[in-house]
Amino acid sequence: MPESSNSGGQARPAKATARGHHPLARYLATRLGLSVLLVFGVTLVTFVLTNLVPADPVQAALGEQAAADPQIVAQFRKQAGLDQPLPVQYVNYLGRLLTGNLGTSNQTRLPVSQEIAKAFPATAELALVAILISIVIGVALGLWAALRRRRAADHVIRAVSLVGLSIPTFWLALLMYYIFFFKLRIFPGSGRLSPTAIAPPHVTGLYTVDSLLAGQLDNFADALSHLILPALVLALYTVGLLTRFSRSSVLDVLNQDFVKAAKAKGLPARVVVTRYVLRGALVPIITIVGLAFGSLLSGTVLVEKVFAWHGIGEYAFTAATKLDLPAVMGVGLVVGIVYIGINFLVDVLYGVIDPRVRIQ
Amino acid sequence: MTNETPAGDGAEEILAVNDITVTYRRPGRSLLTAVDGVSLSLRRSEVLGLVGESGCGKSTTARAVCGLEPLTSGSVLFNGEPVSPLSMKRRPKHLLGIQMVFQNPYASLNPRRRIGSQIEDGLGLNRQRDAWNVNELLEKVGLHPSDRDKYPHQFSGGQRQRIAIARAIGTGPDLLIGDEPIASLDASLQQRVAALMRDLAIQAGSGLLFISHDLAIVRTIADRVAVMNRGIIEEEGPVDTVWRHPTSAYARRLLAAIPVADGLGKLPGLPTRRQN
Amino acid sequence: MAGINASAAPATVSPGLSIRGLRLEIRNGKSIKTILKGIDVEVPAGRITGLAGESGSGKTMTAMAVCGLLPDGSVTSGDAIFEGQNLLDLSPRRMNALRGRKISMIFQDPTASLHPMISIGGQLTDHMRHHMKYGKAEAHHRAVELLTMVEVPRPEEALRKFPHQFSGGQLQRIAIAIALACNPSVLLADEPTTALDVTVQAGVLRLLRRLCDDLGIAILLVTHDLGVMSALADTIAVMRNGEVVETGNRFQVITSPKHPYTKALIDALPTHEAIMVDDDDE
Amino acid sequence: MSLEQGLTRPRFRLPATLRNPMAVVGASIILLWILVAAVISHIWPVDPLAQNFDRLLPPGAAHWFGTDQLGRDVLSRTLAGSQTSLPLSLLLVVCAMILGGSLGAIAGYFGKAIDETIMRIADLVFAFPTIILAMVIAAALGPSLTNAVIAMLIVSWPSYARVMRSLVIGARGSEYVIAGRLMGSGAFTSLWRDILPNVLAPLLVLATLDVGTAILLLSGLSFLGLGAVPPTPDWGAMVSDGVQQFSSWWIAVFPGLAILSVVLAFNFLGDAWRDSLDPRTADAVQGRAI
């Protein structure tokens, strides 16, 4: 029985299932738990910043004139629950959040949640297109640079990606708008649609998708042409980020023995790259895509204003410049939760892609 | 350093490992018992070889003896006193007499300090102040005194391992542990480095616990040998007895599997009748 | 080193591999490192030819040069004759067509040389389908056959599993199956058992011997372990610093080495006198 | 056999880094801007705050970079902008590195509850996109450069903590550190003598690259009106002025170029440095790319 020495290895998987649950399910449950915990953390941060940090939250909420009247102040404190102990205030705050109440904007006197809900699809559309552009271009450039490392293409791609990481997004937005709209008139100007166009019937809130669903091809073309320039500007930083990281992830994989082994099998270079190298680099690349989403969401705050793109970014910009605290906090909270959700999705993808997570 | 008492029944026992168990909790998996009721003892100027294949728990045992691995049950006594696990605090004085030489010669020395000062750290612990000096130690391990001002990366793997041995011996240990100290070296060096470790340990009057997967080399330097498999000690005894007349099935299988460089083209065997 | 080579076995005309005067330099910027200084080794079919030496002696590079997987900036000269053509002169395209088909390779650490995210079945069949133009069913059938041959238990099930679900010894058997998939004539084995435990190693060594004898493959065994060498190789070439210092049949090289370096290597080994394997005494 | 390549510790090699042309370009631009911030902008003849009636003048002989909506000289304001951006970003990075590095080292070395506490706080910061959190904090604290820097410190220490923690955990288990502990060194000696010197280089690379990020973040906050308060000359605020004065491109273009040049310079330097520490690239002969 020459096999007897190896049979020990077979005992391993059998033992592993001792604790029951499917490994992927357990993994996902852990990640979900962590995400929920983080969401609570995010609410804690916004609570602390709204209620404790401003020198005088009452004045921040009421404005200077009303805050001078002690009676109004006292009534406001009572109404807002500010006379209660902090933990109670936090629980009340959570309760309000659960009912979708993010407070009222100091500027517009409208509920913040309502305004954010209105702006959300615009930003989602922009960010999704930008991340798609970033993934396609960034991963391709990173792969190319890694395969041609230390040669001309690598050096050029490196310089380009570093420029992408160094350009201030808000400045680039202004510059592109000036050149391509104001001077050259290649792209349409601000907004999500031309002033004469009528928005497609609301389904997803993404104009490109909605117009296609409604079969309005002109509207689709119009929405797309408005989308391209801001999406490209927004994507430049993340393209740089993804290029750099894809390059180093691919280099890591190229140095692995299994790539050498795949080449020793005589597989064509194309197969080695797509089947062995890219798949090996996929997990780190997906991680970075998750992070890149964060910088995209940050970028929208700096880009949307310039293109008059009525999304969360523009709302946040206006709120920040006007020091509209409830609105700023609302944006922080929503964007934070969206970002946590995206990173949870990344974790899910991880589990699906990597058999070492999926099967024990 | 001239203490060359041969290992005998009269020599004092420095290490007593009594029925220790070490268990790990693997994330999301069942418990892993790496060491399962191991007992060992070691006297001054004695060399005990601990042999087994990867994952058998021999390194975990070595680390538990140093206090690097918390015990699930059992006890380790060093010079009659229990070995406490290494915490964030300084290691208690009475435990400084246990020193270790590690497997990987490229990681066993601080890359940013001269080897001379690293050896001096060890000398600082020696109760006999002038037992050794750096130059002597370097010469003992076959290096030149002028090497003391060099950095680790200027040496080969074998040389680094000798430096690590010099540092450990310099402390004047009662117990020296080698955790696979020769596994990363070229075959032609393994025997020599192992013999050097034995000679220096005996010369310094300390006991040597030598962990290795290579029974053929352990045999040449150890007085006694313990064969470990899946966390338990399958067989223990004087090295020649285990080598010539192994009684446990595992030890026989291990011995039979060692390819012998005899030029005969004999394929290492797998005993055919293990069932009994 | 031609003088020492006199005792080498005469070159066979069979589909083995014949390495003559192999030189390798690696150029990096202005620095030129000479890795191999004229290697002569015959790797006849149906025999195992050992390439021994310590780390840095160039034994692995010799194998890599033969299958054309060298680092950037490598320049080779000399001959590596296989089926009447010099492998060193082949275009990358033609070399790629031979690799994994006629000349295949196994590596030291099977946990690293198999892709952790591709199933065993995938890694065992992709080159078959490319080289042999097998269909899905044909490739699957052959894969099961191969796993049976290398004695991996429950082959059908194993094909669906991933590398992390196997022990090192099983993985090396799988790697050997991958190497043998397209019926190669030459197998380059680079330290095939170094990462394995001795008891597992014993099984893999026996497997390699059996495959060599049954299939008549020419095996080039690269290892630093003279014990493994003595157990498996029919002829042994000892390398040092990019040169072959001694070649001869197994028994002669190990029991009466001619070159002082070989002698020193053998003397450094622990003696095995009186190793007792009481196999048959009950 | 591959042990040697894998485990040779990265060594501190600035000179080798500076042989890289990219690093030379980066270092030169940085030196030039330091000179501008420390000397040239102070002795520049035109007052960056002086307003005149020649508003929104395009670049010309009198005003090389033109004038803004209040008739201030864009060139002298761009030069003066370096006085806030550069020192504040450098200060911020140094503070973040010390704060985050220490916390990360403590978390990594001591583990357990300390580690959990520190890293969960870090995770919380990472749960927000950077500018969003900085914006939220700066808005709560009120607009000023100091508050912007405080907000940035809060958002930037965790990346150092994470990197430092993983470096320390990697080094903590390495054999020379354990050998040191076995020879009786306490936790502090072990950290200071055995671990820190061996993990410092990657941290410094991160800091170099982070100066660029800090400048982008600071100017971003100023662009949002949460940083420099008018009339302080600040690059981000100047670009913001350009959004209002759309057709006068020069108001925004020059300060933007200033930001780009400094950030790019730090990125060039940091990237070249990282490259020289990278065993994969330092050791160019490793196997042909496909």
Task: Please explain how this structure is put together.
The complex is a heterotetramer of chains A (360), B (276), C (282) and D (290). Chain A is an all-alpha fold and 360 residues long. Chain A has helices at residues 8-16, 23-51, 57-62, 64-67, 70-79, 86-98, 112-147, 152-166, 169-183, 207-213, 217-254, 257-264, 269-303, 312-321, 325-353, 355-358. Mean pLDDT of chain A is 85; it is low at 1-19. Chain C is α/β, with parallel strands linked by helices. Chain C has 11 helices and 10 strands. The model of chain C is unreliable at 1-13 and 276-282 (pLDDT under 50). Helices cover 73% and strands 0% of the residues of chain D. The chains are: A mainly alpha (360), B alpha/beta (276), C alpha/beta (282), D mainly alpha (290). Chains in contact: A-B, A-C, A-D, B-C, B-D, C-D. At the A-B interface, helix 1 and helix 2 of A face loops of B.
Please give a handful of descriptors for the protein shown.
heterotetramer; B: 276 residues; 6-stranded mixed beta sheet; 4-stranded antiparallel beta sheet; 8 helices; disordered N terminus; disordered C terminus; C: 282 residues; 37% helix
Q: Mind sketching the topology for me?
A:
The complex is a heterotetramer of chains A (360), B (276), C (282) and D (290).
Chain A: H1 8-16, H2 23-51, H3 57-62, H4 64-67, H5 70-79, H6 86-98, H7 112-147, H8 152-166, H9 169-183, H10 207-213, H11 217-254, H12 257-264, H13 269-303, H14 312-321, H15 325-353, H16 355-358
Chain B: E1 13-25, E2 31-43, E3 47-51, H1 58-66, E4 73-78, E5 81-82, E6 98-101, H2 115-123, H3 134-140, H4 157-170, E7 175-179, H5 187-203, E8 207-212, H6 215-221, E9 224-229, E10 232-238, H7 239-244, H8 249-257
Parallel strand pairs in B: 3-8, 3-9, 6-7, 7-8
Antiparallel strand pairs in B: 1-2, 1-4, 4-5, 9-10
Helix pairs in contact in B: 2-4, 3-4, 4-5, 5-6
Chain C: E1 17-28, E2 31-43, E3 48-52, H1 59-66, E4 74-82, E5 85-86, H2 92-98, E6 103-106, H3 110-113, H4 120-131, H5 136-149, H6 155-160, H7 168-180, E7 186-190, H8 198-215, E8 218-222, H9 226-232, E9 235-240, E10 243-249, H10 250-255, H11 260-267
Parallel strand pairs in C: 3-8, 3-9, 6-7, 7-8
Antiparallel strand pairs in C: 1-2, 1-4, 4-5, 9-10
Helix pairs in contact in C: 4-5, 4-7, 5-7, 7-8
